[in-house]
Task: inverse folding
């Protein structure tokens, strides 16, 4: 009994020390796909959490999905990254956002952004999305105000023109 | 008899090919076309690889995308969509629910595949923008518009290189920093 209680106390501490791997979810047209860092060691069948902040509003969509077959390299799959197709739950999401693979961290969801510890240091980073002239700019920012630092960014090309919302 | 002008996936499949976008430099506005051709020629002569993915975007297609998104997302009533030049389409099915479902089909993954509200105007629609992927290996020595050699050694070795942007500007092909593939007459 004491050993079982001790195990329950130890497991969450280990999970908090391992941050998730951050990638990009591209849910445009009929072919949904995910880009993840190769070092994450993700495989077909693994679960991922999709986070899609609305780049033109303040809603955030969340979904659980499963990685499909791995994709061959392409122009938007640079060295050090893996690509997968995605088996989405119904109803289907559309847009571009973030994919988390690995231990699920605590998510703090606010007005159009999501805060979570991406580096495992106990402080939260902020995920955000905005529209450029023909794409979606995705960022992960550590710190706030004058100390804010972009630690991760990606761009998803839409192939059509939109009204920019990025500042 | 079914009205073949009614919006929806059937209309999309039967008509969308009439309003194609282009990936040909030849379809650009004439002044900008000459500048882009000269810049691409300089890039290729210097050993860079250039792949053009988008040039002139069809204004009718842009309008169909814009209004199908707005109706699908409740931002415009079907009966209030203005006439789109060049497109014979009825958005109002006489039943708002059916009209919105039809617009959702057009905007959805089997139709235009739209996730965000498309714009009605842009440099692409004017023929004054080009999306291209530019890459090279090692050092790039490229001639600017004046014919002077410019050597680019710093990374990245692609179209996001700021030294390359300066060379493009000499040709009148201006980089938009926020969108990696996008160059235009004025960087917009």
Result:
């Amino acid at each position: 009994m004491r050993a079982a209680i001790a195990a329950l106390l130890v497991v969450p501490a280990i999970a908090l020390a391992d941050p998730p791997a951050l990638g990009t979810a591209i849910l445009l047209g009929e072919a949904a796909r995910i880009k993840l860092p190769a070092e994450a060691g993700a495989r077909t069948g693994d679960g991922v959490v999709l986070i899609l902040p609305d780049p033109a509003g303040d809603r955030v969509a969340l979904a659980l999905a499963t990685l499909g077959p791995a994709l061959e390299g392409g122009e938007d799959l640079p060295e050090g990254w893996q690509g997968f197709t995605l088996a989405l739950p119904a109803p289907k999401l559309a847009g571009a956002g973030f994919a988390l693979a690995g231990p699920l961290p605590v998510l703090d969801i606010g007005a159009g952004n999501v805060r979570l510890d991406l580096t495992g240091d106990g402080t939260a980073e902020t995920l955000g999305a905005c529209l450029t002239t023909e794409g979606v700019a995705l960022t992960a920012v550590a710190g706030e105000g004058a100390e804010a630092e972009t630690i991760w960014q990606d761009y998803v090309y839409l192939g059509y023109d939109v009204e920019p919302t990025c500042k | 008899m079914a009205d073949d002008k009614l919006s929806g996936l059937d209309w999309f499949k039967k008509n969308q090919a009439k309003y194609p976008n282009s990936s040909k430099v030849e379809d650009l506005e004439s002044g900008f076309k000459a500048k882009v051709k000269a810049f691409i020629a300089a890039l290729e002569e210097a050993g860079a690889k250039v792949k053009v993915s988008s040039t002139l975007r069809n204004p009718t297609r842009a309008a169909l995308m814009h209004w199908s998104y707005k109706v699908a997302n409740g931002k415009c009533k079907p009966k209030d969509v203005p006439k789109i030049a060049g497109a014979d389409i009825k958005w109002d099915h006489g039943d708002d629910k059916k009209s919105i479902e039809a617009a959702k089909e057009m905007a959805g993954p089997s139709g235009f595949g739209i996730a965000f509200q498309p714009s009605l105007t842009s440099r692409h629609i004017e023929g004054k923008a080009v999306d291209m992927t530019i890459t090279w290996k090692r050092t790039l020595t490229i001639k600017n518009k004046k014919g002077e050699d410019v050597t680019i050694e710093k990374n990245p070795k692609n179209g996001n290189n700021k030294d390359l942007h300066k060379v493009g500007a000499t040709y009148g092909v201006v980089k938009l920093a926020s969108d990696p593939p996008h160059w235009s007459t004025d960087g917009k």
Summary: The interface with chain A takes residues 51, 54, 57, 62, 65, 108-110, 112-119, 121-122, 124-125, 131, 133, 176, 178-182, 188 of chain B (CB under 8 Å). Helices of chain B lie at 9-15, 30-45, 59-72, 96-107, 123-126, 162-170.
